[in-house]
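Record 1 of the preview.
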Amino acid sequence: HHFSAAEESLASAFADQAAMALEHARLFSSVRTYSERLEAMVAVRTPSFMMLSLGLAAISFGTATVTVLQIPYLESIGFPTATAAFTVSFYALTSIVGRLGFGVLADRYNARIIIGICMAMTATGLALLPFVQTLWHVMGVLLLLGPGIGGTVPVRTAMIANNYGTTSFGTINGVAVFVRTLGSGIGPLSVGYAVD
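->
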């Protein structure tokens, strides 16, 4: 079959359009990748992101210390080992309740207020911990600490998604978790060293 000049011209026009479409797709992909990187770089440099990350690191400094040193501390003030171990389970259970409860609340109300409540509960529990004398005191403190720290987990992710978008969520959340983990790692080491 022999193609006419008009058919060759039409095929050439289709080929040109296909080539332009492929180039536009390549450029769009490049722009989108750059946009995602830029979004992540900007987000982690904002004052609100720094405050969120550092606040969570400070809270984790205390709560990781409680998690690691809870049994030795309670034994040192006269609680039997079995009772001290029970409080660890209670702490974990209340943390789960906090994750579920505050996660639901963060979907319905302002996540900034919810995380503020979680942090206030945690800070209050940490401040009261040195004054516990009975099992009921310990349980009361853990009713503040467990849900408070547990609630920060889902609320933090909701805040990051709400405030910084989801395009670079993995990168932004990863930086926040990294900063928080620094607090978790430094807390037990420094408090353990101070006690020893």
